[in-house]
Structures
1.
Amino acid sequence: MREETLTRALNRYDQSPHLVFWETTKACSLACRHCRASAQLDALPGELSTQEGFALIDQIADMPGPSPILVFTGGDCFARADLARLIGYARSRGLRLGIAPSVTDRLTREALEEMYALGVRSVSISLDGANPESHDTLRGIPGHFDKTIETLHMMRDLGFRLQVNTTVMKHNAREMAEIFSLLRETGVSIWEVFFLVGVGRGIQILEVDPADAEDICHFLVDATSYGMTVRTVEAPFFRRVQAEREPFGAEDPRSHFELGELYGALREGLGREEGSNDRPIRSTTLATGDGRGIIFVGFDGEVHASGFLPIALGNVKSESLGDIYTANPLLTTIRSGQFIGECGRCDYRRLCGGSRARAFARSGEVLGDDPSCIRTRVARRIALPLA
Ligand code: SF4
């Protein structure tokens, strides 16, 4: 990203976020092993009421500058009986919307048609494996993989813009090329890859190590050359990898960077599934991160820099989201890039800034190093250009 474009984007994020995630409920009929929200079958006490939801939508619509995109998430947003009313109100206030439902029996064609009629065009669902064994084991529901693929086809036929979220972990890292190919076949336009942070039920499952995270980021850069938008969540160092790769265009990065066996396997898988490709890689995505362009409102109105960062910054029941976002001292510190350790010294701290959620989960220091970035390792194998 060019310096002036980056500065403009970051200045804009001082005034208002680009994305607001609203965890409309904790209720969900799934019990995925890696669930950030530790979702429950039933809604928890204190969930924002319909009227409080309307008030939150007003707060978002009244923020200065271009209105943020509001994403209805959960739990399962379809577990809220008033979802259509909330969406209708948000549309009446001119907000751009996305929904991120769980794939359950509630996600019917009729329910999706209603969303489309209300003006929703963007839906994201999760797929965490390239085959039923892998995905269903994580979700704990036999047949869930097939249902997810079927749902993607249905949503595509209804005209939605499809986003798939994949949480990358040790157990599925080697399936990433096959997952990518499956998404291309299904007409998905955005692939958002979550790098697990050990919170909620996710604490029970192993995160990928920094060397593997670096290999996966290089693979994801390769994947952008096939025309799909690829983004990461809680791995902003993907943007560093994109920037480091830019001067070398479509060249094999192993000529310039020290990469591991996982990268080789994923690159080979990509070639096998999709054919070779010398089209240019896509450039850097928005320089958003926890509390910088992104804000999360919990089921009870508590505001967090990210759904993976359990530090409460205020509550929309008593303060406006805009005031919390612009004035909270932690958020202003994050946006000014005043980090501790390697992230604080890093040339990429404005473009990347590290996962604040992972820094906090690992060390309790929210401004500390993101331990999944290879640059933050003391005995690290830096993926810098080879001598
Ligand atoms: S050291 Fe920190 S700021 Fe630099 S690339 Fe790694 S995570 Fe990003």
2.
Amino acid sequence: MMPRMKALVKTEAAPGLELKEVPMPEVGPNDVLIKIYKTAICGTDLHIWNWDAWAQQTIPVGMHVGHEFCGIIESVGSAVTEFSPGEIVSGEGHIVCGHCHNCRKGNFHLCPNTKGVGVNRPGCFAEYLSIPQSNVIRIKDLPMEIASILDPLGNATHTALSWDLVGEDVLITGAGLIGSMAAAVCKKAGAKSVTITDLSDYRLNLAKILGADRTVNVAKGDSIDAAKKDLGIEEGYGVCLEMSGAPACLKDIISHSSYGANISLLGIQPGGSGIDWNTFVWKGLKMKGIYGREMFGTWQKMSAMLHSGLDVSPIITHRLAYTDFKDGFEVMRTGNSGKVVLTWAD
Ligand SMILES: [Zn+2]
């Protein structure tokens, strides 16, 4: 009989995930088989759980999901030379083609043929995961639970470090988990101040713990203008990170940015969302869309920052056994949580 393992599977075209047995992953000559110890639940996984329009178009029914993980190498394919069994690893969840124009230029994160672990191919919410050796990241001197959230920390790092932050006043709209981690990255990278906005006091409090200087709950009468006054910002924010996907936030960024400001967009705006292009042009603004993280420059930068004092551990608020995954998704759905980490092995 074929060996089997436990995994969180989208068993039917409906909300939810089910814990069930699936075949062990195949391990090709260039692949690394990883025994999973810790996984984290991503906003993407919530979309998959909720079975929204994007998930319905994207996720194959019958596949197990998940892409944030840390584990220990169980075995390696015959052509793998860089890794050995027993090493603690995480991994980049975007599997690129290696031969398109962008891959050939070294811009692997812009490969149009990317396949996503836990999105287009089987994921890490399972006892084992097989990925190409080129996607495996060796972990040294980091707790496994921190190593399991390097994927979203990489989003935060790439969004923030897309611009020179030293001495800048930074505005982050959206204190979701990536926005809050971006606050920590901006402070570590030399920002003069970080202002972060949201509608949730729980999330804003988390952002404060992670290093935001000023939080703004726009649902409770506070304003970015008040924050600018408190922080002595006269000419607007020099770097703005849009992490919410809300059109009102994008509007705030255009109006509160300084002349010549740099803007990253990580949040996905709804179709038809517009901005005041006149202001954009007159202020000489610059805007960049962010997807994933640079392979593998972002990994190296965030690893170096973690080893030199960047502390994102407060973002992990819930630790559960994988068998309690339903509780984990439930608390994520309430919005009153940071990262939820599931333990698969000790
Ligand atoms: Zn490619």
